[in-house]
Amino acid sequence: MTHEIVSLIGGKEETSNGTAYDSVNPARVDEVVARVRLADAGTFAAACRSAAAAQRDWARIPAPVRGRVIASIGRLVEANAEELARLVTREIGKPYAEALGEVREIVDTCDFFLGEGRRLYGQTVPSEMPDKNLFTFRVPVGVAAVVTAGNFPVAVPSWYLVPALLCGNAVVWKPAEYAAASAHALYRLFTAAGLPDGVLNLVLADGDATFEGLGTALAEGTVHKVGFTGSTAVGRKVGELCGRHLQSPCLELGGKNPMVVMPDADLDLAVEGALFAGFGTAGQRCTSLGTVIAHESVHDEFLARYTRALSQAVIGDPAGDVLCGPLLDRKFATRYEEYLGWIQPHHTVVSGPVGRITPDNPRGGFTGEGGLYYHPVVVDGVRPDDRIFLEETFGPIVGVTTFATLDEAVDLANRPGYGLSSSIYTTDPKAAFRFRTGIGAGMVSVNNSTSGAEAHLPFGGNGNSGNGSRQSGMWVLDQFTRWQAMNWDYSGRLQKAQMDVAEIVPDLGFRL
């Protein structure tokens, strides 16, 4: 019997008869992981009201105590790491080693933020008046509505949920439908740590219902911060909706991430980085490698090594030791086939077959069967005006082009208008810092892949990749708190700023 999961609001299951959605295993598309009962827009708005009612009491709990709850979440996730990783692998086809690393990211996030409950510092500021003190305080924003993608179904949500809860907010979380079982498991781990009912709510809904419900909640004043991870196109709509209600969302969107290979690069290291960045998670990361920008003097050798390494990589069953497994879901497979249509006659596919891996279109050493598996593709000869160069291609496809000077490489890297992640391979510190100065990306790697994040470093992008907001580390606290200023005058009289300030008159004409 297929396990059915439903939304959880105020600690209770939402039992309304919504549309049924089957979350399937993309490695074996005839296997249903869970039947998901999708909620409507009214349910999403009701969840926001429930969160608003619960948030007040949660905010009254001292921040160090909330930090202990975060510590408990970390220990619970750690104790259940293997089971949660296996579920992630089964539901979205992510290789098990990557899924286990994703779960570890939740633990790292909790380990960082458990102490932030004792460090939600404000400041005592000197006043320009006597007998008066000035203070600043971090206060929770209220209710955060968090909408996440399914390619990182548990790690990326934790980047929102952990700091939001620590700071005294309540959360309404809408995960991707195709990763609903993983989200449901993570919700249960969070609430097992002792979160009061209504502080964390899970709403399983499609995009249209979520957008409509979010609009209602913003109009009612029951949502005070929106966090969204997903495509640039949808991020623009979320940003416009929030803007109408004078809110600034936290947007983590797509990427077209460049990797520059300099003449002095360690080519084997660059190949290793490009292999993981281009085809880990089957190229379905916002930080996946988009285009290799190789110096014309090393282009041919890099490409030869890259294609050789790719041909030797194992693709298939994500439960095994593979470079990548299937695409996440049928809708991503359909979209990826559209991206393959962007390959033009002036391009050269140097990686071998293109399209879905089947008995009629085989791949050597393939270990999968019956899933949404696609050949990894490397396209040489891409040009700056090509669609495949300018737009995100969410899937296992990497473009390659050349440059003559570092300034040209930086221009090419910035041209698509995204600004999430970037990478340069070089042994010259001057080149590394010139690249860092010129690139518009929010994250820069030197001699490392475009993919990868640590819990105590800011994560986020600019341009088409986001609105400059940052997740992770102490920087995300600015997303889930607002600054409050207080002045305390104990002089016993009204002192008017800028008007009643004592003046000490200097002799500005003095000369030695």
TrEMBL record:
Residues forming the catalytic site: E252
Name the record gives this protein: aldehyde dehydrogenase (NAD(+))
Keywords: NAD, Oxidoreductase
Domain of life: Bacteria
InterPro entries per record: Ald_DH/histidinol_DH, Ald_DH_C, Ald_DH_CS_GLU, Ald_DH_N, Aldehyde_DH_dom, ALDH7A1-like
Native organism: Streptosporangium becharense
EC code(s) of this entry: 1.2.1.3
NAD is among the record's keywords: yes
